[in-house]
Amino acid sequence: MSARIIDGKAVAAELRARVAARVATLPFAPGLRVVRVGDDPASGVYVRNKDRAAQGAGLNSATMQMPADTSEAALLATVARLNADPEVDGILVQLPLPPQIDALKVLAAIDPAKDVDGFHAMNAGLLATGQRGLVPCTPKGVMHLLAAAGAALPGARAVVVGRSNIVGKPMAALLLAADATVTVVHSRTRDLAAECRRAEILVAAVGRAGMVRGDWVAEGATVIDVGINRLPDGRLAGDVDFAAVRQHAGAITPVPGGVGPMTIACLLENTVEAAIARRG
Ligand SMILES: NC(=O)C1=CN([C@@H]2O[C@H](COP(=O)(O)OP(=O)(O)OC[C@H]3O[C@@H](n4cnc5c(N)ncnc54)[C@H](OP(=O)(O)O)[C@@H]3O)[C@@H](O)[C@H]2O)C=CC1
Ligand SMILES: Nc1nc(=O)c2c([nH]1)NC[C@@H]1CN(c3ccc(C(=O)N[C@@H](CCC(=O)O)C(=O)O)cc3)C=[N+]21
């Protein structure tokens, strides 16, 4: 069997169009500010794509570039300024941050109502307790892709590989909220392959190119590859060995063109949600 490809580019384009249509009905342009400290190359791709998408959807969007040696105090002052700016509905501080800056401290300083990344402990807590808040873009995008693929979640065995605060944990919370039976596996898991083989829904968010092998995947499983890894030759690769896994899965996302474009579309969606919630 050769799995159906879940076209993240197409699903993201539809979502961006829905967001743009909603923005067009508003009497103001929702404001988004992305703060980038230094020039981490992985963030570069994201910031470029995001700028284009945000302008296309009619948002008032700008990227603020700060030097790599920016102090924590200076970044906190920038966040405070954006918190106080009534034109700004969404604030995203690009991760990773340079070593002199405590990322958790910066995330905690963002007004939770403007936290379009959904990384503030307030929003993480709302998600964990089944309440409405701003949901992290990447796992939110994965849920859109699962819906587009027609995946049946209630009662399904879902396995999430990775337990980061930005992908793995919120992914598990969203799948649980959708009534899946969720297992989270990580670097201390005894038998990764065996856990993955039990999955009807498998989400890989590890950061290791091609780690999920063909024989880790059950026949017909839906496989979502969150990984964005830069290979030595410059190409992007996911966390899933795409060619091998494709022979077993029922549906699979490619990299690029899978989860990445959804992350950006969900950032726009979150910005509009935050704007409407805040401005009434
Ligand atoms: N498509 C998109 O929009 C986005 C893609 N990404 C990509 O997703 C991937 C994951 O990102 P992120 O969650 O931030 O990464 P982190 O490095 O924060 O977390 C990686 C997770 O994978 C686990 N892990 C690492 N090595 C292994 C291993 N050998 N076996 C099992 N588990 C392992 C770690 O386990 P432990 O906790 O035990 O250390 C950790 O929980 C990256 O490729 C990143 O680039 C990230 C954000 C957005
Ligand atoms: N505060 C914060 N929030 C984030 O959400 C965040 C972050 N920091 N830091 C970096 C990671 C990474 N990330 C990506 C999102 C989209 C693509 C993306 O658009 N990928 C496309 C194109 C890739 C290409 O063509 O090079 C694709 O996969 O098809 C990539 C990477 C968000 N992140």
From TrEMBL:
Catalytic activity: (6R)-5,10-methenyltetrahydrofolate + H2O = (6R)-10-formyltetrahydrofolate + H(+); (6R)-5,10-methylene-5,6,7,8-tetrahydrofolate + NADP(+) = (6R)-5,10-methenyltetrahydrofolate + NADPH
E.C. number: 1.5.1.5, 3.5.4.9
Keyword match Oxidoreductase: yes
InterPro entries assigned: Aminoacid_DH-like_N_sf, NAD(P)-bd_dom_sf, THF_DH/CycHdrlase, THF_DH/CycHdrlase_cat_dom, THF_DH/CycHdrlase_CS, THF_DH/CycHdrlase_NAD-bd_dom
Gene3D superfamilies tied to this protein: Leucine Dehydrogenase, chain A, domain 1, NAD(P)-binding Rossmann-like Domain
PROSITE patterns, sorted: THF_DHG_CYH_2
Pathway: One-carbon metabolism; tetrahydrofolate interconversion
Pfam families (UniProt xref): THF_DHG_CYH, THF_DHG_CYH_C
Superkingdom of origin: Bacteria
GO MF annotation: an example: methylenetetrahydrofolate dehydrogenase (NADP+) activity
Binding site for NADP(+): G162, R163, S164, I228
Residue ranges of domain Tetrahydrofolate dehydrogenase/cyclohydrolase NAD(P)-binding in the record: 136-276
Residue ranges constituting the Tetrahydrofolate dehydrogenase/cyclohydrolase catalytic domain according to the UniProt record: 6-117
Keywords tagged on the record: Amino-acid biosynthesis, Histidine biosynthesis, Hydrolase, Methionine biosynthesis, Multifunctional enzyme, NADP, One-carbon metabolism, Oxidoreductase, Purine biosynthesis
Family that this chain belongs to: Belongs to the tetrahydrofolate dehydrogenase/cyclohydrolase family.
Functional description taken from the UniProt entry: Catalyzes the oxidation of 5,10-methylenetetrahydrofolate to 5,10-methenyltetrahydrofolate and then the hydrolysis of 5,10-methenyltetrahydrofolate to 10-formyltetrahydrofolate.
Subunit structure: Homodimer.
Name the record gives this protein: Bifunctional protein FolD
Organism: Teichococcus vastitatis
Encoding gene per record: folD
